[in-house]
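Worked example 3 (structure in, sequence out).
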């Protein structure tokens, strides 16, 4: 057996029903579309959310909430991650460039240092934001937490 004599399994490939090819085919006339109405005509397209005339779900369910246009989205980096960087990469200064190099942030991210984990290294950290616990932990080790 090779690529030149491959074929599908017996009975797995069937011919498509040829609809609308005259009365002799058994599927001529209305071509399985019934009589008249929008669905029998060419170009018919049901509206998104249409439920056969029943009040659609998106109109039955009330609106709620809003999107705050002034929201700032931060990329969170935990203290445990900073400790790993200090252990593995031997860094003492942590800023946006170092986090980007190590795949922890992208160039358009705002970075916030979060207080989850334990920090044992003395680090100089520069970021857009700090939680109180993170800032306290960094300064307890003799490091500095500088907000951009």
């Amino acid at each position: 057996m090779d690529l030149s004599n491959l074929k599908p399994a017996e009975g797995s490939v069937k011919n498509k029903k040829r609809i609308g090819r005259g009365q002799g085919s058994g599927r001529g006339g209305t071509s399985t579309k019934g009589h008249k109405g929008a669905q029998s005509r060419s170009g018919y397209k049901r509206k998104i959310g249409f439920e056969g005339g029943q009040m659609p779900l998106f109109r039955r369910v009330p609106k709620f909430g809003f999107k705050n246009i002034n929201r700032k989205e931060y990329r969170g980096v935990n203290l445990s991650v900073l400790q790993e960087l200090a252990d593995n990469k031997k860094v003492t200064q942590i800023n946006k460039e170092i986090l980007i190099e190590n795949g922890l942030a992208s160039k358009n991210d705002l970075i916030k240092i979060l207080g989850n984990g334990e920090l044992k290294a003395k680090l100089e950290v520069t970021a857009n934001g700090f939680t109180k616990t993170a800032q306290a932990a960094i300064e307890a080790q003799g490091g500095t937490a500088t907000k951009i």
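Notes: The chain has a mean pLDDT of 94. The beta strands are 74-78, 93-94, 110-114, 124-127, 129-130, 144-147.
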